[in-house]
Specification:
The complex is a heterodimer. Chain A is mostly helical. Chain A is about 75% helix and about 0% strand. Chain A has a single domain (about 1-545), classed as Sodium/glucose cotransporter. The longest helix of chain A is centred in the middle third of the chain and has 52 residues, at about 180-230. Chain A is globular, with a radius of gyration of 23 Å. The chains are: A mainly alpha, B mainly alpha.
Chain lengths: ~550, ~130
C-alpha cells in the first residue's frame, strides 16, 4: 500500500520534473542576463579598486582600511561557498537532519578564529599566514613550508569550486556538451584572474561583499516564502518534509547519511573535528584579517561573520526542509542525485511552477549561486598568489631583496599562472566527483596550519624543526590518507570509480592527521638541536597581545 | 610625479613604531604584561576547551544516541533539533562573552602597555 502510494507520488513528480526542466531552459535568457549584470557590475568595481591600488599593502591587504562590518560581510562572502549554499540545502532536502548537523561544524569553527587566531594574527603579521609562522624561525625553510601548505590548501579548494561551477551551470542552463562545460570553467577562471590582478584585495573584498548581500537577500526571500506557505509554523514544515521524504520521523533524526554503520559514524566524527579546527587555518580566511586597521576591528569582523554565517545556516534549515516538503525527493534526485539543485528547484516551486514568478525566482537564485562561486574563487586565488609572491618569491627566492613593486608584479603573474593551471585542472576534472576536495582542504588546514599557528603564538619552546614537522607532517598525512581513501578510488562515488587502491576506510583523514600534526610539532621542537629564539618570541608575544608595531 | 628623494611615508606599512628586541623582552617579563597574558589565556583557553567538548558531545550524541535525540519535545520538534539550535545559541553567546571580556579587560591593558612602549622607544630614539 505504502509502496503504491510512493510510486504514484514518484510518477507525479516525474511529470513535474519535466515541467521544471523546460522552465529552466525557457528562462535561460533571464538567468544569463542577471548573471551578466553581476559580472559587469563587479568588473566596474574591480577597475575602480584597481585605480586605488598603489602599493603592496593595497594589493595584499586592501590598504587595511575596511571597517569591521565590511570585513565581516566579505569574510561571509569568502566562506559561504556554493558547497554551503547548494550542498547543505541539498543535503537537508535528501537526508534531513544530517544535512543540518553538517552545517553546524562550519559555524562553531569561527570561535577558534575569534578566541585564538584573528587578533594575534592581525597584530603580528603583515600579508600572509607565513608572516606569523616564520616570525620566530629561520625564514627560508618555514616560509617555503607555509607557502607550500597555503598553495596546496587553496588549489584543492579552488579545484572543487571550479569543477562545481561546470556542473552547476550545466544543470541550471541545460548545457551538457563538453565544450560548453569547459567554456564555463574557462569563463570563471578568466574572471577570477581579472578580479585579482586588476583589483587586488580591494576589488576582491568588494566582490565578496556584494555577493554576501545578494546571497543573504536571496536566501531571506526564499525562506520567507517557504515559511509563509506553512503559516510560519515550523513544526508543520518539519512534519510535511518528513512525510514527503518517505522516511517519516527518521528524517528529523540524526543517522540517515552519517549513521549508516560504524565506519560512517567515525567518518563524520573525523569530518566534524576537521571542520571546527580547519576554518581558522584556511589561508584565504586568514589574510582577510589584514584588511582592517586594528585587532579590535578584526574581532568585530569575526563577530559580524559569526552573525551573518549563523543566520545563513539557520535559513538553510528552512530551505532544505522546504525543498523536501514542497519539491519532494524524487524531483530533486532526478535533477541531480547529490541534491545540489534543491535550492534553485525550491525557488521555482515557491514562486509557482510555469509562472513568471517561479521563473524569476529560479533565475535570481541561480545567478546568486554563480556569484557565490566567483567571489570564493577570487579569494582563493588571491591567497595563493599572495603567498607565492610574499613568502616564496620575495623571501625565499630573492632572500628579502625584492622591492614592493617587484613583489606585487610577481603576485600578479602568479595569479595568471594559478588561474591558467586551475582552468586546465578544472576542465580535466569536470566529470570527476571532486566535492571531497573541500573536506580535504579543511583537513589539511586543521592538520598542518592550525597546529603551527597555535604553537607559534602560544608556545615559547616551539622551534623551526617543530614548525617544519607539523606543516609537512600534517600536510603529507592528510593528503596521503585521502589519496588512499574512498574519495579517490574504490567506490561508485569516487573520483576514479574504475580504479581501486583504497586501503584507508575513512573519507576524512582529520581524526588521524590532526593529532599527528600537533604531535609532530611538539616532537620536532623537543628533538631540535637549536634553542628557540627567545628574543623573537618576546617580540611576537608582546606584539600579538598588544598590537605595538603592528603593520 | 617623480621626486628626487621620496620622503618616508608616514602612516603606511613601514611607518609604525618598532621598539628594540631588548625592550620587547623587558616588557614580556614585566608584571603588567604577565597580567595581560593571564587575563587573556585564563578566559580564552578554558572557553575553547568548553565549546570544543560541547560540540564533540553533540556529534557523539548524534552518532551514538539516536533514540535519545529522536525524543519529541513538542510537535515535530525533537531533542536533536533543540540541541542543534543550542549549538547556534552557545556560539553567539560565547562570541558575545569574549568580546565583552576583551573590551572591558584586555583592550585597556593592551593600550596601557602599547602607549608606554611607544613613549619609551620615542625617548630612546631621541625624538
Amino acid at each position: 500500500m505504502t509502496d503504491t502510494l510512493h510510486q504514484l507520488a514518484a510518477s507525479g513528480d516525474a511529470t513535474l520534473h519535466l515541467g521544471a526542466s523546460s522552465a529552466t531552459s525557457e528562462h535561460r535568457g533571464l538567468i544569463i542576463s542577471l548573471f551578466a549584470a553581476f559580472v559587469i557590475a563587479t568588473l566596474f568595481i574591480t577597475v575602480w579598486a584597481g585605480r586605488q591600488t598603489k602599493d603592496a599593502a593595497d594589493f595584499y591587504a586592501g590598504g587595511r582600511q575596511f571597517t569591521g562590518f565590511q570585513n565581516g560581510l566579505a569574510i561571509s562572502g569568502d566562506y559561504m561557498s556554493a558547497a554551503s549554499f547548494l550542498g547543505i540545502a541539498g543535503a537537508i532536502a535528501l537526508y534531513g537532519y544530517d544535512g543540518f548537523l553538517y552545517s553546524i561544524g562550519f559555524l562553531v569553527a569561527w570561535l577558534v578564529a575569534l578566541l585564538l587566531v584573528a587578533e594575534p594574527l592581525r597584530n603580528s603579521g603583515r600579508f600572509t599566514m607565513g608572516d606569523v609562522l616564520a616570525y620566530r624561525m629561520r625564514q627560508r625553510p618555514v616560509r617555503t613550508a607555509a607557502g607550500t601548505s597555503t598553495i596546496v590548501v587553496s588549489i584543492f579548494y579552488l579545484l572543487a569550486q571550479m569543477a562545481g561551477a561546470g556542473v552547476l551551470v550545466s544543470l541550471l542552463l541545460g548545457i551538457t556538451s563538453d565544450g560548453g562545460k569547459i567554456a564555463i570553467v574557462a569563463l570563471v577562471g578568466v574572471l577570477m584572474i581579472l578580479y585579482v590582478t586588476i583589483g587586488g584585495m580591494k576589488g576582491t573584498t568588494w566582490v565578496q561583499m556584494v555577493k554576501a548581500v545578494l546571497l543573504i537577500a536571496g536566501t531571506l526571500l526564499i525562506t520567507f516564502l517557504v515559511l509563509w506557505k506553512f503559516d510560519f509554523n515550523v513544526s508543520q514544515l518539519l512534519g510535511t518534509a518528513a512525510e514527503r521524504s518517505g522516511r517519516g520521523a527518521q528524517f528529523l533524526e540524526p543517522g540517515l547519511k552519517y549513521g549508516v554503520d560504524g565506519m560512517t559514524k567515525l567518518d563524520f566524527l573525523s569530518l566534524g573535528i576537521a571542520l571546527v579546527l580547519g576554518t581558522a587555518g584556511l589561508p584565504h580566511i586568514l589574510i582577510r584579517f589584514y584588511t582592517v586597521p586594528t585587532a579590535q576591528a578584526a574581532r568585530k569582523s569575526v563577530n559580524w561573520a559569526i552573525g551573518i554565517i549563523g543566520a545563513f545556516y539557520l535559513m538553510t534549515i528552512a530551505l532544505g526542509f522546504g525543498a523536501a516538503a514542497l519539491v519532494g525527493p524524487e524531483e530533486i534526485k532526478a535533477s541531480n542525485p547529490a541534491g545540489n539543485t534543491a535550492a534553485p528547484l525550491l525557488a521555482l516551486h515557491v514562486g509557482g511552477v510555469d509562472s513568471a514568478g517561479g521563473a524569476i525566482l529560479l533565475a535570481v537564485i541561480s545567478a546568486v549561486a554563480f556569484a557565490t562561486i566567483l567571489a570564493v574563487v577570487a579569494g582563493l586565488t588571491l591567497a595563493s598568489s599572495s603567498s607565492f609572491a610574499h613568502d616564496i618569491y620575495a623571501n625565499v627566492i630573492r632572500k628579502g631583496q625584492a622591492d614592493e613593486k617587484e613583489e606585487v608584479r610577481a603576485a600578479r603573474w602568479a595569479t595568471v599562472f594559478i588561474g591558467v593551471v586551475s582552468i586546465a585542472l578544472g576542465a580535466m576534472a569536470r566529470d570527476l566527483n571532486v566535492a571531497g576536495l573541500v573536506a580535504l582542504a579543511f583537513a589539511v588546514a586543521a592538520s598542518a596550519n592550525l597546529p603551527t599557528i597555535l604553537y607559534s603564538l602560544f608556545w615559547k619552546r616551539f622551534t623551526t624543526r617543530g614548525a617544519l614537522w607539523s606543516i609537512y607532517g600534517g600536510l603529507t598525512a592528510s593528503v596521503t590518507l585521502v589519496l588512499f581513501s574512498p574519495v579517490v578510488s574504490g567506490k561508485a562515488s569516487s573520483m576514479f570509480p574504475d580504479a581501486d587502491f583504497a586501503w584507508f576506510p575513512l573519507s576524512n583523514p582529520g581524526i588521524i592527521s590532526i593529532p599527528l600534526g600537533f604531535l609532530l610539532g611538539w616532537l620536532g621542537s623537543l628533538l631540535s638541536k637549536d634553542e628557540p629564539d627567545t628574543g623573537k618570541y618576546a617580540e611576537l608575544e608582546v606584539k600579538s597581545l598588544t598590537g605595538i608595531g603592528a603593520h | 610625479m617623480a621626486t628626487d628623494a621620496p620622503p618616508p611615508r608616514a602612516g603606511t606599512d613601514a611607518g609604525a613604531v618598532q621598539p628594540t628586541t631588548e625592550a620587547f623582552v623587558e616588557v614580556q617579563q614585566s608584571a603588567q604584561f604577565g597580567e595581560l597574558r593571564r587575563t587573556y589565556r585564563s578566559f580564552a583557553f578554558p572557553l575553547t576547551v568548553g565549546f570544543t567538548v560541547w560540540y564533540l558531545l553533540y556529534v557523539l550524541l548524534s552518532n551514538y544516541a539516536g533514540g535519545f535525540m529522536g525524543t519529541k519535545v513538542f510537535g515535530n520538534v525533537n531533542v536533536a533539533l533543540v540541541f542543534g539550535l543550542a549549538q547556534f545559541a552557545t556560539t553567539f553567546l560565547i562570541a558575545w562573552l569574549y568580546s565583552r571580556h576583551a573590551a572591558a579587560k584586555l583592550d585597556p591593558k593592551a593600550e596601557a602597555i602599547r602607549s608606554r612602549m611607544a613613549a619609551e622607544s620615542r625617548m630612546e630614539a631621541g625624538a
